[in-house]
């Protein structure tokens, strides 16, 4: 009896193709695993291949230097020698009134010392606040001054009349110093002369100050004459 040995028959092509597919799949899995490990290493190191580095910060603009404006030289005032400052009509307390220009604000006429008496233009009226009455009524002081700069012989001024509206006072005002003759007409110093540099003062009380201005004043040649 003859026994036959097994022959070495090559595997079929389908089996070989399956084997090669398994090998390729294992190789691909190995590559994917290596790529995953490399990516995680890059993330741990703080590297992001998808995000570019931020741009450098922009430098702040430097402002241009501003040159200082040239200083304006002070105005040069030519000196003027005046006998007295110009006046104005009394509108409220603390304002000077003088002159015969009425209530239009003509003020005091500027003139030279040797012009002599100027009558009403040489009379100035000053008003200011005084201590009110205990009842609360306001009080005002009035100073009337002869501002003529000459001597008594050429600067005495008499018959000084003042525009005063319906002047009245809660407290008594000496009528020999100041009294109302009629509407808008008050007499100062009982009509007697006011010498150069001399001042007559009085005080009145009222709820408001009166607007006082000189209306008439007469220069007298001989102030000692009766």
Instruction: Count the beta strands.
Output: 8
How do the SSEs run, as a string of H and E? HEEEHEEEEE
Shape from CA axes?
A: rod-shaped
Distance between the termini: 197 Å
How much helix is in the residues? 10-25%
> What is the rounded Rg?
56 Å
How do the strands line up in the largest sheet?
A: 1-2-3-7
Describe the structure in your own words:
This protein is of the alpha+beta class. It is 16% helix and 22% strand. Strands 1-2-3-7 form a 4-stranded antiparallel beta sheet, with no helix packed on it. A 4-stranded antiparallel beta sheet has the order 5-6-4-8, with no helix packed on it. A hairpin with an 8-residue loop joins strand 2 and strand 3. It is rod-shaped and about 165 Å long.
List the helices and strands and how they pair.
Blueprint: H1 13-44, E1 96-98, E2 123-130, E3 139-146, H2 152-155, E4 157-163, E5 178-182, E6 185-188, E7 199-205, E8 213-219
Antiparallel strand pairs: 1-2, 2-3, 3-7, 4-6, 4-8, 5-6
Key terms:
single chain, 226 residues, alpha+beta, 4-stranded antiparallel sheet, 2 helices, 16% helix, 22% strand, disordered N terminus
Summarize the structure.
This protein is α+β, with helices and mostly antiparallel strands and 226 residues long. It has helices at 13-44, 152-155, and strands at residues 96-98, 123-130, 139-146, 157-163, 178-182, 185-188, 199-205, 213-219.
